[in-house]
Backbone:
């Protein structure tokens, strides 16, 4: 830094710096010594008294977790108080023998033992871990009498989470589970460690996870005098806990139930949104699972069952499953054509039943073609040729740009986790997606099938419902959300989650009107007409069928495995002139959209607009009342 | 014939010859003190402690037998390995207790940041040695880059304590290599003034709603908890409150061995690891604390003495840096436990329970011993 020095100068400077380092070390240790002197001599009396008084221990008071209710007050998640038997492994001499002896007093199943073992692997030895939850009164009494025989085993009153509706809406509500290392990391990162002292459960999925902050509440604490053995003698002062806030959802649980029942044993998803607000009315993914299994640590065999099922009940298909939209894509393509001026409503083609491009024969479903087809007929009859040609005229870049406007290919921003962004195909996307140069090139032929919602297209039902709701609302896009109000559990005051308009897509009202009329035509005289026959309201819809496996012209037969059959889709909104509900339905391997998906949409609209319940669903659910005040204790 | 007969005395001298007398005695003294405290704080860990000490002394003995020239040859490979492992941790590491620090290599889980504590001073000392006689400002820039790469990786894990220690280790090499005062002094002045300002105005700037430029809310929270532990009695403040009570109530001679109420009524957190100093001072008072500080001063001055007599630039820089690392460990830990430094995970050297840290420290001591023993054999 200051020129080159001789080795002697170097050594001299080095020794000088050693001296500086030594001096700094001495000063620092001096500082420490001064601090010790201050603490131990100057303020000895003060700290000595504090240590004496430190018979006072701070005991956290865990707040009650907030409830989750649907828009009509039906409780989806609540708390109840029960006794749990807990073991602190480090305080027990022979764990096996202790558990054996305990099993004479209370019922301990092999799965309880397995769960304890799993918990022990995940936690520190001085934590107390549950061996049996929800003891019966008899078991409590038997244990209390014999308590002296079991050092390190304690009976604790605890709040348990309960999901009274079981599997209904489980993908939305999610579940809580014991705090693990990863949760601890998050808690530490957000500096919530203090607030989680005493809490041993945390939201793991769904609303329980995304609204953890609201639901948890603020931990209070109690100053307790302890004797020299550390046992509590009396309470001195308490700062009560602030209970977590309740969530009141936009969701209509009855509607959710109607949908889940309508699906029967089939797999699929449905999302229904209120167009003017973005409030989610139903978000169904079937099959579902029982969230109650997770609350106290899921038993290994239950977990395996859920995880290895070919139906994948744990996957939230509505949010996470991306499917080709099939012909439900056509109304959006038509709208894009109007917006970009590539088509006028009256402009018509003569459909020969196929479209030739680059030597490839793109076939229409209807052999011989639909004849003279304008925009209205193209949607009502679901004419493929019209859209093959349109896609070719628009080109992939314009398609990707305008479909992106409707939210296809990007996350909607809904207030639970796990949303997938789907695939909005474009040459740029292909470049990112594939590594080999020969795979990265976009071919003109690929654009053609994009036009009918096939090819690389893949969207979630949430995106499809979101886009449908946006069209239904005249181009105003609202952020989809599940929570309508956050309610304070202490004073009942409600904070409304305001509908958040994301943007207004510049579409001329007459263009929207063309699409609306065409979709009304679908349900009146087109592919949706059979499902909506006799409906006393005017609805707009579009059927769709998404290819899972290419039949190469062959007909369906029993030889084609059920899982290779096409997915059936349907989008709809109603009432057509002033929509209050918009939705997208998918039935996995359901075949044609008109046959299996449209009837589900009909059931939804019949219930939502007319209050008509399908057979097999009780009009008033007993679980809808009471329940709310069920949480006890602090 | 008598030359071939087994002579226990000669054999013992031969075996002990790599070890430096004063250093060995000082480390043994601190370890004995630690054992006494551990009997009170956590007697069930004594077996493992004995095992840890055994392994650590083996490592120390091996390090002391390796001549400094040999250490130079492994500096670069060790550093590269360390950085690669850290990148591995960032990509595939296991998460434990809220941080991604461990790398599972099949047979065992290793913590590469620990390796960096030794690899860092070795690498920088080697770098300056290779540039001896030609050292310019550019070299300090390169050395700083070599320093910041692993420190950044460790800080991201996140492991602030180790990141600080590794950064300090590297900085000491730069300092001893002659980093200009024109760069050091302004940083020191700004630091002192800044800390002074925060302490003086703690009450106003810690109020709710006051935002600190460039810092996140939780970082502000951490500093404010240090200034006023009672503002967070259930969280981090709890540790500081309880450990200062333990220290203060110890008085001049302490409450006596095994009689610390804070310790034995479970008020002290982490009493066998990071907060063991609070146990020591509660039971042995100011006298015990000063005795430990004195032992550390002896250790550090022996280290500085070895550095002063070291023959090559490499061994000088290494010895100086290693010595100051011991100082940093001791000062940061005692400062944190007595409430003058923020709580970061730094163990008390040779006293806190923990195998990895003990082995790393003894490795450092062994290197110092080797430098002392080989001081005459190598000339420059």
Residues:
């Amino acid at each position: 830094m200051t020129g080159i020095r001789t080795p002697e100068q170097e050594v001299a400077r080095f020794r000088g710096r050693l001296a500086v380092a030594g001096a700094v070390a001495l000063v620092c240790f001096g500082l420490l010594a001064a601090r010790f002197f201050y603490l131990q001599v100057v303020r000895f009396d003060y700290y000595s008294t504090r240590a004496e008084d430190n018979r006072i221990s701070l005991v956290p008071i865990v707040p009650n977790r907030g409830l989750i209710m649907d828009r009509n007050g039906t409780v989806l998640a609540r708390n109840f108080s029960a006794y749990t038997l807990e073991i602190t492994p480090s305080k027990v001499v022979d764990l096996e023998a202790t558990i054996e002896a305990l099993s004479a007093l209370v019922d301990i199943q092999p799965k309880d033992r397995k769960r304890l073992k799993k918990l022990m692997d995940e936690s520190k030895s001085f934590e107390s871990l549950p061996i049996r939850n929800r003891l019966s009164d008899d078991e409590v009494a038997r244990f209390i009498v014999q308590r002296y025989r079991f050092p390190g085993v304690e009976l604790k009153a605890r709040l348990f989470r309960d999901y009274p509706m079981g599997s209904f809406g489980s993908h939305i509500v999610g579940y809580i589970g014991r705090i693990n290392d990863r949760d601890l990391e998050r808690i530490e990162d957000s500096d919530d460690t203090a607030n989680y002292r005493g809490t041993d459960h945390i939201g793991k999925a769904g609303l329980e996870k995304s609204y953890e902050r609201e639901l948890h509440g603020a931990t209070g604490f109690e100053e307790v005098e302890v004797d020299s053995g550390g046992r509590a003698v009396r309470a001195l002062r308490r700062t009560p806990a602030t209970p977590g806030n309740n969530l009141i959802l936009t969701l209509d649980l009855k509607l959710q139930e109607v949908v889940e029942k309508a699906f029967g044993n089939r797999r699929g998803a449905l999302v229904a949104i209120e167009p003017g607000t973005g409030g989610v009315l139903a978000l169904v993914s079937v099959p579902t699972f029982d969230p109650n299994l997770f609350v106290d640590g899921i038993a290994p065999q239950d977990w395996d069952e859920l995880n290895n099922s070919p139906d994948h009940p744990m996957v939230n298909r509505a949010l996470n499953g991306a499917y080709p939209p099939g012909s439900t894509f056509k109304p959006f393509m038509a709208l894009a054509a109007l917006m970009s001026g590539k088509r006028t409503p009256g402009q018509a083609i003569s459909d020969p039943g196929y479209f030739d491009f680059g030597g490839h024969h793109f076939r229409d479903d209807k052999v011989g073609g639909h004849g003279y087809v304008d925009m209205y007929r193209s949607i009502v009859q679901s004419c493929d040729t019209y859209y093959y040609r349109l896609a070719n005229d628009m080109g992939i870049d314009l398609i990707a740009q305008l479909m992106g406007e409707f939210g296809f290919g990007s996350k909607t921003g809904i207030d639970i986790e796990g949303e997938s962004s789907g695939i909005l195909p474009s040459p740029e996307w292909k470049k990112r997606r594939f590594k080999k140069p020969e795979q990265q090139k976009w071919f003109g032929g690929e654009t053609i099938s994009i036009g009918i919602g096939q090819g690389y297209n893949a969207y979630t039902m949430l995106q499809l419902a979101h886009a449908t709701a946006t069209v239904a609302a005249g181009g105003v896009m609202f952020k989809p959300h599940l929570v309508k109000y956050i309610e304070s559990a202490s004073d009942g005051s409600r904070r409304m989650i305001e509908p958040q308009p994301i943007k207004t897509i510049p579409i001329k009202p007459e263009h929207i009107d063309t699409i609306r009329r065409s979709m009304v035509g679908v349900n009146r005289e087109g592919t949706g007409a059979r499902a909506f026959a006799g409906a006393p309201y005017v609805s707009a819809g579009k059927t769709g069928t998404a290819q899972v496996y290419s039949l190469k012209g062959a007909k369906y037969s029993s030889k084609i495995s059920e899982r290779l059959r096409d997915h059936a889709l349907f989008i709809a909104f109603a009432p057509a002139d002033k929509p209050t509900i918009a939705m997208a339905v998918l039935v996995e391997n359901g075949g044609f959209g008109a046959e299996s998906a449209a009837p589900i949409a009909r059931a939804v609209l019949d219930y939502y607009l007319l209050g008509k319940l399908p057979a097999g669903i009780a009009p008033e659910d007993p679980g809808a009342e009471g329940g709310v005040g069920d949480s006890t204790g602090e | 014939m008598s030359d071939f007969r087994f002579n226990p005395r000669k054999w013992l001298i031969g075996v002990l010859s790599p070890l430096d007398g004063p250093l060995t005695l000082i480390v043994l003294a601190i370890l004995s003190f630690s054992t006494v405290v551990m009997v009170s704080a956590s007697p069930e860990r004594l077996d493992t402690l004995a095992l840890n000490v055994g392994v650590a002394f083996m490592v120390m003995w091996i390090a002391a037998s390796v001549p400094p020239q040999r250490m130079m040859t492994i500096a670069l490979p060790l550093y590269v390995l360390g950085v690669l492992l850290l990148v591995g941790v960032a990509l595939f590491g296991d998460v434990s207790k809220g941080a991604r620090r461990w790398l599972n290599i099949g047979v065992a889980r290793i913590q590469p940041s620990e390796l960096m504590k030794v690899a860092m001073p070795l690498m920088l000392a080697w770098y300056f040695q290779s540039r001896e006689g030609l050292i310019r400002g550019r070299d300090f820039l390169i050395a700083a880059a070599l320093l910041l790469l692993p420190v950044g990786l460790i800080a991201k894990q996140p492991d602030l304590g180790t990141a600080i220690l590794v950064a300090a280790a590297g900085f000491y090499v730069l300092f001893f290599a002659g980093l200009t005062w024109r760069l050091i002094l302004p940083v020191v002045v700004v630091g002192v003034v800044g800390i002074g300002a925060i302490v003086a105005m703690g009450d106003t700037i810690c109020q709710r709603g006051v935002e600190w430029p460039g810092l996140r809310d939780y970082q502000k929270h951490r500093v404010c908890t240090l200034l006023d532990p009672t503002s967070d009695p259930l969280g981090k403040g709890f540790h500081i409150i309880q450990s200062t009570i333990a220290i203060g109530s110890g008085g001049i001679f302490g409450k006596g061995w095994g009689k610390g109420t804070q310790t034995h009524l479970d008020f002290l957190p982490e009493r066998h690891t990071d907060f063991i100093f609070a146990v020591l001072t509660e039971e042995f008072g100011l006298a015990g604390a000063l005795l430990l500080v004195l032992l550390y001063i002896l250790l550090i001055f022996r280290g500085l003495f070895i550095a002063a007599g070291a023959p090559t630039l490499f061994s000088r820089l290494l010895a100086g840096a290693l010595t100051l690392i011991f100082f940093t460990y001791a000062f940061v830990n005692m400062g944190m436990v007595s409430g003058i430094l923020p709580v970061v995970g730094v163990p008390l050297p040779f006293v806190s329970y923990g195998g990895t840290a003990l082995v790393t420290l003894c490795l450092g001591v062994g290197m110092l011993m080797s430098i002392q023993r080989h001081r005459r054999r190598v000339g420059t």
